[in-house]
Amino acid sequence: MFSKACEYGIRAAVYIALQSLDGRRVSVTEIAGEIDSPIAFTAKILQQLTRNNIVNSVKGPTGGFEIERKDMDRVNLSMIVKAIDGDNIYVGCGLGLKECNADKPCPLHDKFVDIRSNLRTMLKSTSLYELATGLEVGLTYLKR
Predict the structure, then answer these.
(1) Parent domain of 42
(2) pTM summary value
(3) Does residue 42 lie in a domain region?
(4) What is the CATH number of the domain that holds 15?
(5) I need a surface site. Which of 20, 90, 103, 126 has the fewest CB within 10 A?
(6) Which helix (H) or strand (E) holds 58?
(7) Is 83 buried (19+), middle (13-18) or exposed (0-12) by CB count in 10 A?
(8) CA pseudo-torsion sign 133, 134, 139, 144
(9) What PROSITE patterns does the database record attribute to this sequence (predicted)?
(10) Which tens digit of pLDDT belongs to each residue from 47-70?
């Protein structure tokens, strides 16, 4: 459903939020190790998340990535998906056709309308704080 970069972006943002709740900044190397992603690929993803004001990057010997507690409520999954994958998940054809629309639908077009609507609702209503606290109390997990 999401690109590999987007999956890693979500996992990275959740990991950063979880560590930030403990007052820790985390390095790109630590993040890459925790989300099982190549370091260079993780660095590019973190650049996109930083550019889109999802996470903060602090330079220097005590630097790293963090997200302020107040921003964890503001940031939702939809923002992360848009920062990495754009909005194709909401508008692209389910079969990958270029001409698919209401006037010229693909065989899955009408079925995807409700699915997309539900997905948009779920992504917009799920905050980074909600995901991080689920991990913190052991209700969810992040590793494979």
Answers:
(1) 4-85+127-136
(2) 0.87
(3) yes
(4) 1.10.10.10
(5) 103
(6) strand 56-58
(7) buried
(8) negative
(9) HTH_RRF2_2
(10) 999 999 999 999 998 899 999 999
